[in-house]
Recover the amino acids of this structure.
């Protein structure tokens, strides 16, 4: 899934670079000052809006979202069913120290082992889930803000270039190249917004949804284990959250 | 209904092609690199946002929505009334193996035959309905994202062309044709968004609504059959969902 | 009220035609192909989105909304009070066959005469009201879609014209007129959207609101008659729905 | 408060006129046909959308909102406390004929004197309050519609001018002035929308909020008087609605 | 946090000034009349919309939000826990006259000392919190309105310049510089909106959220102290509002 984001962004960038090559070479589109004006200017504006901590936090969230694969809900259900089986046979305490695939599930098991109420387990895990949703949401909103600001910074850069060009229109031959450079900031603004920031913001929102699914499965599963439900029933209940194609029962393999 | 979408898109495309022919020939509007830049670039960006699976899934949903005609609610009501009649005379079990027009109805009948509770029947069928609504919604939102991105990719392509043209303005005669080519990506972006993606997204949303109607009729009908209501009453109840003109009673023919 | 819409649209069109005449003649603004491209193209796109039936239905709804005057709420209240008076003196059955101003009121009276429950009367009439609100809403949304699409079709037409003009820039003298023609589709798109479609969509929404008022008055009135309330009280209750200036009591004339 | 609106609009207009004078004279910006096209055209379109009655009603509401100052909540509280004092000493009937600052308060007192229930008093006064809120809302939405339409009419006017200019480009010297005139409608559209209509619409919305405060104070006050509360308590309760700085108690002066 | 806003705005401005210097000097971008037209014009329009008092109040709120650092929630929890400890040992009255970090907390303590009900304490403090949220919201909405209006004023200024330039196109050499000056107002409008007003509006909204957190902590804390809860429990409860990293217990140091 995250591979798709990286491929998508790199692919779109490659398409644009191809367009540059086709129209005569990448060189004339590379103007470091223009890139800095749009990129650094936009980052400053977004930082003014959100504060440094939130800004850096968003970068970290985004990086994490790209580097770690999100869990496979079907595998997770198998894992929970196994845990339920173990709990049925050896009691809740036998779950202590089990190796599990995610920290969140680990935390849930710890709560079971500690002997908390089902209600308390749900409340604590839900609070944790909401916190991470909030973090993803903030990451998405910072990339959304960058996507709003960068075209504006691009336009500001182009206006600066146009004013300069128009003020000193002595040599008609210089008009073309000057205007080309002026347009570059608009170009960078459009690329940063549409090819980089908007897909990342959208991705973080989608990612958040799949994490909600994963964590909801774990919360439901922990509660079911705690109330001693039959592992088969637990599997059936959790399968309702995923698409029918993925519902291969662990009991029929 | 789906015919209208195909005719509409083809008709609008034909109008635009006519405009091209009137202004001197289609040839000068065909620039394969420009088309690829806008189309492939937009697809990459949308893929970055949604992931490959969701993207391909949306294409499949859209294709299905165009190829299969949605059921006629009036005919469906007749069919349900017939089933109710058969169930009244021969019991619920007599419905087993009946040939019906849709898989969803088949699934509903199976639930009846299996002897489930009315509440369970409703819950299971509603969950299925919501899943397919969600799938259509996602299809619509991916085409909506394409419609957002393609004008931006068109503008990026035009900026590339303009920068190239302005950088090398030696021969005044080359300005016109170069700018014409630069504008082509903006043109393709506008066409892809307004003539193709937006109507398909709108269509998928409308289609979703008519499927909700169809499935609601089936859910209501199954429940009524299960509670042994009089077929005439069932027909009356279901007729309330459709417009008066379509309410020809099967009992008065 | 509907007169105002017609006067408004014609007035705005006349203003624009005046502007054309002032700037040298209407002739140069008439370009049949341009008009067809924008108008027919937009209609095709909207048809693709909504389907043929809905599209034609919307046209019918719009036509009706312009041709029939909506009822005067004050007169309607007088009429209901009269009916209440008659019902009090001669019983509900005496209302049968009364000539009334609207079909909806006629239907309501028929329900009274048929001896239905107040609850049933309310449910049936409300469902009918909601259906017509829905129809108006759909009409409004189709004109809204036309208003969204026509500027885009206008821009597409202008891009076609510009590309053609720029590709063949041999004779500098032809640039002006060619660009003038290219701009015409943008012009038509703006006029169709802002002068025709948006006011009609807004009008249909407003119209819907006044119909809700009228039908709410009738529903309330029918219920009051059915529960045998005093005509004076009925009048007072219904007057609460209209502005104080219109509350001339039938009993004080 | 309303003074600020008038000063604001006149000030912004003065700034724009100053800009005209600085750039060479107001004369070249005055083009009566252009003004009429944008202003009258926009009014026609808005009339088409809302109907004549609503349109004229909105103008009246706007005029009233500017001419009458809204009441000072602190003074109003003093007045209500005085009334409560009088009612405590001489009974509710002693309030009859008291001179008060607003019609709404007068109406409230009349309801007290008439011996209505607290519930009835609240219902009747609230309905009156909602009616006036609705009127202000409609006024605001009509000015909002004008602000939407006038830039579009300005663009239409400019397109007419451009098409005319481009069609007859014989004399290169005439291009500049012709284009200047064509741009005037865009200019008027922007000024009408941003300097006149949007602030008035915003003002009417703000005005509506302060009227709700005033009328809520009166409604609360009337109910408190009716239930014979201590004037000091009434003052305290009503002070909770206004900012601490304005809470000078009438009992401590 | 507020430092980030100041650094962000100054940084973005520095980037733009760098762009000016790179393109030939800041001088040609400084045009006092243009700045005044956009800035003063926008302020007049916003004043027309909100009234003078609200406008000046917003400026004050914004200034305060930048000058005063918002409290650190972790330190605040320590402080509340200390108060709870003191109240446990010496009774509520012993809290009188304690030096605390914020006025809001001081007000809360005063309510405790005065012996009010927990419900009353909550109501009074919540009302105070809502008032300050409202003030921040209004500040944000005024800066948001400035961000909406200033690009429009910039465009109006540019149109004035263009009309003037086009009307008097005698000397081709003057076209460039005249157009450069005309573009300056668009440039200023974009800078005022995107680099100054939008980040401040966003900041005030974020600031409001952190103040809500601080005040919610105080309200919860006051209630817990009043009901005589154990300081450790109070700490645990309040820690739930902040991120785990900040939850260093005062009892474990």
């Amino acid at each position: 899934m995250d591979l798709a984001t990286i491929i998508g962004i790199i692919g779109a960038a490659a398409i644009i670079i191809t367009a540059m090559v086709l129209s005569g070479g990448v060189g004339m589109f590379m103007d470091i000052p223009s890139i800095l004006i749009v990129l650094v200017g936009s980052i400053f504006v977004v930082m003014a809006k959100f504060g440094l901590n939130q800004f850096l936090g968003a970068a970290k969230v985004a990086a994490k979202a790209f580097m770690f694969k999100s869990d496979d809900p079907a595998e997770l259900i198998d894992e929970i069913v196994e845990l339920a089986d173990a709990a049925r046979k050896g009691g809740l305490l036998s779950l202590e120290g089990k190796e599990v695939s995610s920290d969140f599930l680990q935390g849930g098991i710890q709560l079971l082992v500690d002997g908390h109420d089902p209600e308390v387990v749900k409340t604590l895990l839900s609070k944790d889930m909401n916190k991470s949703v909030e973090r993803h949401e903030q990451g998405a909103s910072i990339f959304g803000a960058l996507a709003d600001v960068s075209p504006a910074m691009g336009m500001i850069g182009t206006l600066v270039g146009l004013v300069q060009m128009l003020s000193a229109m002595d040599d008609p031959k210089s008009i073309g190249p000057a205007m080309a450079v002026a347009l570059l900031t608009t170009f960078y603004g459009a690329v940063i917004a549409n090819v980089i920031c908007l897909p990342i913001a959208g991705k973080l929102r989608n990612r958040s949804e799949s994490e909600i699914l994963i964590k909801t499965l774990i919360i439901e599963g922990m509660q079911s284990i705690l109330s001693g439900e039959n592992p088969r029933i637990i599997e059936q209940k959790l399968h309702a959250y995923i698409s029918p194609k993925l519902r291969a029962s662990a009991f029929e393999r």
Chain C touches chain B at residues 33, 36-37, 40-41, 44-55, 127, 131, 145, 149, 152-153, 155-157, 159-169 (CB under 8 Å). The CA atoms of residues 99 and 106 of chain C lie 8 Å apart. Residues 172-226 of chain C form the longest helix (55 residues).
